[in-house]
Amino acid sequence: MVSSILTNGRAWGQEKSPGFVITNAFGGVLDEKLVAEKYLRASGLDYTIVRPGGLKSKPASGALVVSKEDSLNSGEVSRDLVADVCVASLSDPK
């Protein structure tokens, strides 16, 4: 599942951060993504949740940064790189 950075922002005090406020202004999208993540986690299916920062159409530049859940509150990433991560997750047993 491709979700979003700050999806669980309320749980770690980010609800007033500019990124959370701006992104969640669109129909409470971060709140809805959290509902979907919880549903997937409880489904019993194998899953991967990717929470990218702001998606950019430019080609990837630099190294991929992977951080633990709920540790980043801003950032941008190439759509191509997000797609690469999603495809790689299909065959990664972790």
Set out the fold topology.
Blueprint: H1 18-24, H2 29-42, E1 54-56, E2 76-78, H3 79-89
Parallel strand pairs: 1-2
Give a written overview of the molecule.
The structure is a single chain. With 94 residues, this protein is mostly helical. It is built from three helices and two strands. A two-stranded parallel sheet has the order 1-2. The longest helix is centred in the middle third of the chain and has 14 residues, at 29-42. The model has no long low-confidence stretch (mean pLDDT 93).
> What characterizes the major β-sheet?
2 strands, parallel
- Side by side, the strands of the main sheet go 1-2
What is the mean pLDDT? 93
Could you list the spans in which at least 5 consecutive residues all have pLDDT below 50? none
- β-strand percent reads 5-15%
Helix content: 25-40%
Query: Class by helix and strand content?
Result: mainly alpha
Envelope shape:
globular
How many helices?
3
Give the tally of β-strands: 2
Q: Measure the end-to-end span.
A: 15 Å
- Listing every helix as H and every strand as E from the N terminus to the C terminus, the arrangement reads HHEEH
Compute the CA-based radius of gyration.
Answer: 14 Å
Describe this protein with a few key phrases.
globular; 34% helix; two-stranded parallel sheet; single chain; mainly alpha; 2 strands; 94 residues
